[in-house]
Every structure is written in structure tokens, then in C-alpha cells.
Amino acid sequence: xxxxxxxxxxxxxxxxxxxxxxxxxxxxxxxxxxxxxxxxxxxxxxxxxxxxxxxxxxxxxxxxxxxxxxxxxxxxxxxxxxxxxxxxxxxxxxxxxxxxxxxxxxxxxxxxxxxxxxxxxxxxxxxxxxxxxxxxxxxxxxxxxxxxxxxxxxxxxxxxxxxxxxxxxxxxxxxxxxxxxxxxxxxxxxxx
Length: 192
Fold this sequence. Notes:
This protein has eight helices and five strands, in the order ααβαβααβαβαβα. Helix 1 (3-24) crosses helix 8, helix 3 (53-66) packs parallel to helix 8 and helix 4 (85-94) crosses helix 5. The protein is of the alpha/beta class.
């Protein structure tokens, strides 16, 4: 492996996906921002969830909202459902891993809250079950995904689909889009 070539190829790949994502996701981004803002202004909360790197993104974004992203401001109610190890392991043990998010949404979600399922494939069974429960309970089911969207367009609205095939590029765009959503939400809430 030639290190400089690998380094340059990865940056070029990232730049291509970044440009494609910028060109294709503004409309669902705007819709997602509107959903988040409406929920927060009406006393709702945002429930993030995902697996692996998407779990890390869920936790990261929830922290940005609860603490702050850019400016000091009142906290925004947000929870990452993949962080409670006792709930995750008990649910997995007692009901099966596919229920780790749906069970928590059933317990914690209220109509008007926003469920944000994060899945690079768009087909993660526990994310699918979580969004199904969100719809059943009257939450707004939304998703960040990639590839062809998987089953997310059938389960969530809005859905932001990163136009990439590789997990690492999709995850890079998810955290970029998530940061943009956090910053835009702070700006939008100041105007209300």
C-alpha cells in the first residue's frame, strides 16, 4: 500500500460523496429541521437510535442538543436510546435484540416526539422495529440512511438518504448532516 495514494483516494471519495449529498438532500434536510423544531416548540423530545457507528452518532447528536452545539441556550430534550446498557441488555435477553429500540420508544415516546432512526443500510431490524413502534405510538418517525434507502422510505417521513454505497462515507455524511441539523435548530429556535 502506498500511503499517499490511499490518503488522497479517501479524501477524494469523501469530497465526491459530500458534493452529491449536498446536491440531493436539502429538501429532506429542511423537512427534518421543521419536524424537530415543531416538536421542541410543542414540548416534545427527540429520540435517536442506531447500531455501531450509528449508535455513536445518535449519542453524539443527543448530547449536542441537551448541552449545546454552537451557542449557550436552554437545553433541548433529546435521548440516545442506545446508551442505557441495563435496558439494552435486559430487553435483548428477555425479548430479543430486535426490540431494543421499540421497547424503549413504547415506554418513553409520546405523540409529537420525534424518533430518528439512523441506519446506513436502511434495513437494520431493530431500527425498523423502533420506527414501526414510533408510528404506532404517534411519534413522528424519521430516518437518516444511505444506499437506496432500504425500507426507510416506507417507515419514515422525512428520510435523508445519503447517496453512497460504503458505510464509512454514509456515516461521515450522517454526522455532518446531524451537526447541520443541530446548528440550524439552534438558529431557528432563536427566531421563535
